[in-house]
Amino acid sequence: EPEVTQTPSHQVTQMGQEVILRCVPISNHLYFYWYRQILGQKVEFLVSFYNNEISEKSEIFDDQFSVERPDGSNFTLKIRSTKLEDSAMYFCASTLSGGYRGNTGELFFGEGSRLTVL
Amino acid sequence: KQEVTQIPAALSVPEGENLVLNCSFTDSAIYNLQWFRQDPGKGLTSLLLIQSSQREQTSGRLNASLDKSSGRSTLYIAASQPGDSATYLCAERTGFQKLVFGTGTRLLVSP
Question: How far apart, in whole angstroms, are the C-alpha atoms of residue B47 and residue B91?
């Protein structure tokens, strides 16, 4: 069964360092998302991406964050200069469509990348 | 502001019990509602999705219902098992974009 894959599963970095989290969405999906979950808290929306551009972003997604789809398969989240409060589990998700033409619009999530900032 | 709340926050039951998890949402322009399971330190596993035009969905021992007028969804788990122990999350989608997640219900089923 197709699945969303994320790498690395765990990354430890020093404050101020750049981090890139990678995701391979399901191959025929068109909408891509990043979410994060700080330990013990809700899963929070960061950004959605469609047709090679950001379609929506949250207040959390400031200038320190960027997303890219560098080729036909990968979807990346970059944090330019990490802070202690960026420590969280980051989830990538994808969906085929917004639910038109009978598609349910179900989002499929990866296993997550745990980021620890020291 | 769109909000999703789940009650109870935690639930502990003996094996074999039937149980109900509750989810409330504030945005009535719901597109669909998705229930997820999350094991500690792990990813999100989709359990059920209910479209706004549907009243319920079933998968095995799980049944999810949706009442748009009251802004509520319930997840019913029949004959609970220790392997059902996890955190259950509901998430509302109001457009073709993001899901908004609830606070989660942490379930413990004891043998």
Answer: 11
Instruction: Say whether B44 and A91 touch across the interface (CB within 8 A).
Output: yes
B93 contact residues in A (CB cutoff 8 A): 105, 107
What are A51's two structure tokens?
A: 């047709």
Count of residues making up chain B: 111
Nearest to A109 among B41, B43, B93 (CB): B43
Closest residue in A to B4 (Cα–Cα): A42
Rg (CA), chain A: 14
Q: How does strand B32-38 pair with strand B86-93?
A: antiparallel
Could you give the CA distance from residue A57 to residue B92 in angstroms, rounded to a whole number?
Answer: 17
Q: Which of B96, B101, B106 to mutate to test the interface with A (most CBs of A within 10 A)?
A: B96
d(CA A70, CA B27): 35
Strand-strand pairing, A53-57 and A65-68: unpaired
What distance in Å separates the CA atoms of residue A62 and residue A82, rounded to the nearest whole number? 12
CA-to-CA distance for B96 and B110, rounded, in angstroms?
Answer: 39
List, for residues B37-86, the tens digit of each pLDDT value: 999 888 899 999 998 889 999 999 999 999 999 999 999 999 999 999 99
Relative to beta strand A10-13, strand A113-117 is parallel
